[in-house]
C-alpha cells in the first residue's frame, strides 16, 4: 500500500462519514418537527391571530442559480393569560394583512406557535419521504466510509 492510497482512502472515508452525519441530522430534524406537531395537536392551546404584515424573502441557490421566493406573514395574538405574542408564519398558505386565523401554541412557549392549518395538515407522505431520504444518505455515507477505510488500510471490502 502506498501513501496516495492511504490519503485517498482517508479522504473518501471522511466524506462518507460527513454524508452519514448529514443523513442523521436530517432524520433527527424531521423527527423533532413531527414530535412538535404531535405535541401541538395533543396539548396545544388555540388563539385567534391576526396577520399584521406580509413580506417576501428572495434568495438564489448558489449551485442551480435559480431564484426562490418565500412568502412570510407576521401573526399577532394574545395568549390565554392575555400576553401579546408575535410569530412568523413561513407556511405555504397565502395570507393577507387583516386575515384572522387560528394558531396553536404550547403553554409556556407561545413564541413557537403555528397556524392551526399547518398543525392539522396530514403529513404522512412527506414524513416518510424525508425519512427515506435521510436513511438513504446515512446508508450511502456508511458505504462510502467503509470503502474509504478499506482503501486507506489496504484491506478488503468484503
Tell me the helix content.
40-55%
Runs in which pLDDT lies below 50 for 5 or more consecutive residues are none
Strand order of the largest sheet: 3-2-1-4-5
Radius of gyration: 23 Å
Task: Categorize the overall geometry.
Answer: elongated
Distance between the termini: 18 Å
Number of strands: 5
H-E order: HEEEEEHH
List the quaternary state of the chains. single chain
Work out the strand percent.
25-35%
- Helical segment tally? 3
Keywords: Membrane, Transmembrane, Transmembrane helix
What is the gist of this entry?
The chain crosses the membrane at residues 6-28, 125-152. This protein is of the alpha+beta class. The chain has helices at residues 3-43, 116-120, 124-153; strands at 45-60, 67-78, 84-89, 100-106, 109-115.
Secondary-structure topology with pairs:
Layout: H1 3-43, E1 45-60, E2 67-78, E3 84-89, E4 100-106, E5 109-115, H2 116-120, H3 124-153
Helix pairs in contact: 1-3
Keywords: Membrane, Transmembrane, Transmembrane helix
Transmembrane segments: 6-28, 125-152
